[in-house]
């Protein structure tokens, strides 16, 4: 069966399900033929041929682009769910709270020559490092949850906020 025919059959089935939900016509167990007859009757009573053609075209074009859109949405949702943002850059103040981007254990809170005061947090598969902090609100060994305040950053200073999220294997 060619691709266009498969897409059209899928669109028709989706249309049938849509109509059955909208009209309240639901299948009885083991009576698929009777169900299809009920759908056919409901379609004839509720939709014109022009409306059905347009619904079919809309469903077919949506079906063609659906796999890519679903894939993009899943990737975006996974990123948003797993890791948050370390700073709320929309705040109108120069002192910004710094947040843990995910839950984990504070590996180190201290001072380094290259990034000043910093906090390093171990997550299940990543390590996040926050530097150039004006203060640290956590200590080494402490457990943090996603969104917990781990320190603050003063944006009125001359140093830029330092943030790195890296795989455990590369750190």
What would you say this structure looks like, in words?
- The chain is α+β, with helices and mostly antiparallel strands and 171 residues long.
- The protein is 41% helix and 25% strand.
- The chain is built from 3 helices and 8 strands; from the N terminus they run H-H-H-E-E-E-E-E-E-E-E.
- The strands form 2 sheets. It has a 5-stranded antiparallel β-sheet with strand order 6-2-3-4-8, with no helix packed on it. It has a 3-stranded antiparallel β-sheet with strand order 1-7-5, with no helix packed on it.
- Strand 2 (104-112) and strand 3 (116-122) form a beta hairpin.
- The radius of gyration is 27 Å and the shape is elongated.
List the uncertain runs: none
Major β-sheet annotation: 5 strands, antiparallel
Share in helix: 40-55%
Shape: elongated
With helices defined by DSSP (H or I, 4 residues minimum), what is the helix count?
3
Beta-strand content estimate: 25-35%
Please state how the strands of the largest beta sheet are arranged side by side.
6-2-3-4-8
Helical/strand content category: alpha+beta
Distance between the termini: 51 Å
- In N-to-C order, the SSE pattern is HHHEEEEEEEE
**Total E-strand runs:** 8
Radius of gyration: 27 Å
Mean pLDDT: 79
Key phrases:
171 residues; 25% strand; 5-stranded antiparallel β-sheet; elongated; 3 helices; alpha+beta; single chain; 3-stranded antiparallel β-sheet
List the helices and strands and how they pair.
Blueprint (H helix, E strand, L loop, with lengths): L2 H21 L8 H15 L2 H34 L12 E5 L4 E9 L3 E7 L3 E6 L3 E2 L6 E2 L4 E6 L7 E6 L4
Antiparallel strand pairs: 1-7, 2-3, 2-6, 3-4, 4-8, 5-7
Helix pairs in contact: 1-2, 1-3
